[in-house]
């Protein structure tokens, strides 16, 4: 059974989320500080983390950065209503999705299920083809990592999923809608910030010159294309 970790200083909300996801056959643990969350991650295996931005002591961003140093599991962040700065900062730091408070519990459960399903599906796909090789780039499907001259990077779920989707369609122009609906599994509402944040993170890791990318290239006004010449 899938199991998630909820890190939020609102104890009543944590308990409510736990009861709600258990009704959907998803186990859950919760804790109220980032430090406790990191300890639980080291002690047990989880398929997803739900993380609040605003917490005393180590806040959500610091916790996110520490998690990403060790783990590549999906992370869904809670942000305040209309707090676009926190949203973008979280996505750039490695969050896979976000939800603004207050939120609808059914939407939260749907997002959790979608992230777990996609993470599991992409892991299962690694069975047949283990690695994709390009000029200066190797994508390891089994370990969900990418290697370039910059080093080897174990990629967070959305980064890996987006990279793999583009690479599998090498040379084809992919619209932002196509990318979003494939990688996030949700209807596209013309908000480019998620896609842009993840592509920015990928370029910083994989490219020698991120401002002139060799691999995922921008097609102005349309979307992106994985370079057919590599």
UniProtKB/TrEMBL annotation:
Keyword Kinase in record: no
InterPro entries, A to Z: CheY-like_superfamily, OmpR/PhoB-type_DNA-bd, Sig_transdc_resp-reg_receiver, WalR-like, WH-like_DNA-bd_sf
Modified positions (4-aspartylphosphate) in chain numbering: 52
DNA-binding region: 129-228
Transcription found in the keyword field: yes
Domain Response regulatory: from-to ranges: 3-116
Any one GO CC term of the record: protein-DNA complex
Alphabetic keyword roster: DNA-binding, Phosphoprotein, Transcription, Transcription regulation, Two-component regulatory system
Gene Ontology terms describing biological process: regulation of DNA-templated transcription
A GO term for molecular function: phosphorelay response regulator activity
SMART domains in the record: REC, Trans_reg_C
Residue span, OmpR/PhoB-type domain: 129-228
Superkingdom of origin: Bacteria
Protein role: May play the central regulatory role in sporulation. It may be an element of the effector pathway responsible for the activation of sporulation genes in response to nutritional stress. Spo0A may act in concert with spo0H (a sigma factor) to control the expression of some genes that are critical to the sporulation process.
Protein name: Stage 0 sporulation protein A homolog
Organism from which the protein derives: Clostridium symbiosum (Bacteroides symbiosus)
């Amino acid at each position: 059974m899938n199991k998630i970790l909820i890190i939020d200083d609102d104890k009543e909300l944590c308990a409510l989320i736990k009861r709600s996801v258990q009704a959907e056959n998803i186990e859950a643990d919760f804790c109220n500080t980032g430090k406790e969350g990191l300890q639980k991650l080291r002690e047990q295996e989880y398929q997803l983390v739900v993380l609040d931005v605003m917490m005393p002591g180590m806040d959500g961003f610091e916790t996110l950065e520490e998690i990403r140093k060790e783990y590549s599991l999906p992370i869904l962040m809670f942000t305040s209503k209309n707090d676009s700065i926190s949203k973008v900062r979280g996505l750039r730091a490695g969050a896979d999705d976000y939800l603004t408070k207050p939120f609808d519990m059914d939407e939260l459960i749907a997002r959790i299920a979608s992230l777990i399903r996609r993470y599991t599906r992409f892991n299962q796909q690694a069975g047949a083809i283990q690695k994709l090789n390009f000029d200066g780039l190797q994508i390891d499907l089994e370990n969900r990592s990418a290697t370039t001259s910059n080093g080897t990077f174990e990629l967070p779920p959305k980064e890996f999923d987006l990279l793999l989707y583009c690479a599998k369609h090498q040379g084809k122009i992919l619209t932002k809608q196509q990318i979003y609906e494939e990688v996030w599994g949700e209807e596209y509402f013309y908000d480019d910030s998620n896609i842009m944040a993840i592509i920015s993170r990928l370029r910083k890791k994989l490219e020698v010159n991120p401002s002139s990318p060799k691999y995922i290239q921008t097609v102005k006004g349309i979307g992106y294309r994985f370079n057919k010449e590599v």
